[in-house]
Each structure stands twice: as C-alpha cells, then as structure tokens.
Amino acid sequence: MSEQSFEQMLEESLKTIRNGEVVEGTVIDVKPDEIVLNIGYKSDGIITRNEYTNEPNVDLTTLIEVGSTMEAKVLKVNDGDGQVLLTYKRLAAEKGSKRLEEAYENQEVLTAKVAQVLNGGLSVVVDEARVFIPSSLVSDIYEKDLTKYDGQDIDFVITEFNPKRRRIIGDRKQLLVAQKEELRKALFARIQIGDVIEGTVKNVTDFGAFIDLGGADGLLHISEMSWGRVESPKKAFKVGDVVKVFIKDIHDTKIALSMKFPEDNPWNNAAEKFAAGTIISGRVARMTDFGAFVELAPGIDALLHVSQISKEHIDKPADVLKVGQVIEAKIVDFNEEDRKISLSMKALITEEASAEEDE
Q: What is the rounded CA–CA span in Å between residue 8 and residue 5?
C-alpha cells in the first residue's frame, strides 16, 4: 500500500460541494466589488457585487467585515479560474420568498423599507424578495404622488402570493382602515355633547373646516367659528392648525363642532354695555333697502333703520353709508330676549340741534 502524498491527504480531508448547495464560510477578503470566503473547500468562494445585492455601485467594504461568517449558494463549482462562484442575493431571495409565504398564510403584518416608487405603486424588499404594493392599496385615501414613501418603512400584509408568476402583492390600505376604525370606536366611546376637545384642521372649505379629532372628523361650520363675523374660513384657518372646539352635536357618525363657547357669548353682559340711551360707535357690516346692520361688538349687530339715518328723507342706506364705515349712533331700544338692538343717528342730530338752540 503506497503512502499518500500530503496534497492527496489534504484534498481528501476537504469537503466536496455541488452546484445549488448552500455553504457557510468565513470572509477572508473584501474588495469594493467582491467578497472572498473560505468555505472549507480546496478553492475559495467568490461573491461578486451583483450576486450580493441589487444596489448598483455599492462599496462592499462598507457592508462586510473580514472575519465575519455568512451563508451563500453555489452557482458554479469552478468559475473557470479555479474558484467557486457563490450567490448571497439569490439565497436571501429564496429565504425571503419562504418568509413571505409564511406571512401570507398567517396574515402577518410585515414592515419593510420602500425600495422603489413605480408608476403604479411601491416596491418593497423583504430579505431580497420583492413585494409590489399597487397605488390603490398604499393608502386609504387617493394619493397621486407616492414619492414621499421612497425610503420609508411601511407596514403591510401579503394578499396574493404567486412566486411562479412573480406576483407577490402587498396591501397597506386595509391596515390603515382597520386602525382608523379602532380609533373611531374609541373616540365615539369617549366623547359626548358639550365636551371640549383639541383637533387638527384637516381641510378647509367655503362653508367650514373639517377637524381631525383623532379617529373621526368633525365639521366646524362657518356659523360656529366665532361669535363675530367670519368672512371666509380659508382666511381664518389653514391645514395643520391645532384648534380647541367643543362638541355641539353627535348624529350617528357625524360630529358638529363649535368655537362659540358660552362663556365668551358677547350677549352675557350686553344689557350693561348697550342699554337704551347709550351713544356708541359701530362699523357698518351690511346693508339692505330698509336699513343698515351695524356691528357694535363681535357677535352683536344692531339695526339702523333707514328712517333713523337722517332728518332728511333717504331712499336707501347705500345712498349715504358704505360697508366698513364707522358711525356714531344712539341706542333707542334694547331687547335682550329677542337679542335685537335698534339705533338712531337722527336722534343724535336732533339732540345736537336742540343743544345749539339752547345755547
């Protein structure tokens, strides 16, 4: 029996490998575009940049350290240069596909980073396996521009898993809908009419503002924004404003809001400030053919009848007054029950004339 050479014994002591086999190795060298592994075989294993990641031009020395261990799959036992060609990316994709299959069967919520924003949706990567989330399933509201999601971590579930057709579909929308429904239930269980609550302005229209209360939106109508006059909600509020409101009414899923807090009601002390006989200044707020309405304070308007504007005959208030003009008049009647106040400029003119005659 002949003695074996040292080379023969060393070769026999090394394991044999085949294409498709998963091997584990220790990193012995890292270059910007290549990783070298000692896999316990007569030749070292090589993982090129393209077989490590889908990211182009990445510097592998910033990702992998010498001495670390990693698994890879054999692509070719001999790449032509006597080395073993390995792939990390494809093995990870296989593991990722298995991971996605389990998540699909268990309806598990996954979290992954958005790798790419496409025309029709988002592409996310789970362990090198790609998942497509159509734009209609990205959010519970229509979003034309999805670029804000680029690079962001998002939650989703797998609703379709067909790797043979390369069709793995994710759904984020149903999670948002379920989350909002839980918040809605919690909100309606917590609030009642009269409660003061903070919310965030979500949308502003010509007739009011929609306030996000943290589970449902409430409508703050233009007539409930202030005791005074609000010309345009869009001038008074902007999206993102945090406001304090109170619940005026709840009807099914609709919430009516108000900022006309009872303690700020200008009529609370109106009897003292606007008693009959008081001379006061006010701003002409609006006019009709029969008279002008004068704002004495935010939320309190008084009627200046056309017959009380001047001693001379006037066809309509617009002939001598204009909106925004500040006038001085005398309060001739105060009706707290009906919240009506009557003014007279003519009374002041008459009084002034009498005073001049007395002098």
A: 5
- Could you give the CA distance from residue 175 to residue 181 in angstroms, rounded to a whole number? 10
Taking the chain (359 residues) in consecutive chunks of 10 residues, what is each chunk's mean pLDDT?
Answer: 51 68 92 92 90 87 92 84 86 85 92 92 87 94 91 94 88 94 93 94 95 94 91 92 95 93 89 91 92 92 93 90 93 91 89 58
Q: How far apart, in whole angstroms, are the C-alpha atoms of residue 66 and residue 248?
A: 67
- Which of these, 104, 116, 99, lies nearest to 156 by C-alpha position? 104
Buried b (16+ CB within 10 A) or exposed e, 136-150: ebbeeeeeeebeebe
CB-based contact 53:64 (threshold 8 Å): no
CA 299, CA 224: separation in Å to the nearest integer?
11
DSSP string computed for 25-41: EEEEEEETTEEEEE-SS
The pTM for the full model equals 0.61
Helices (H) and strands (E) in the chain, counts: 6, 20
DSSP 306: G
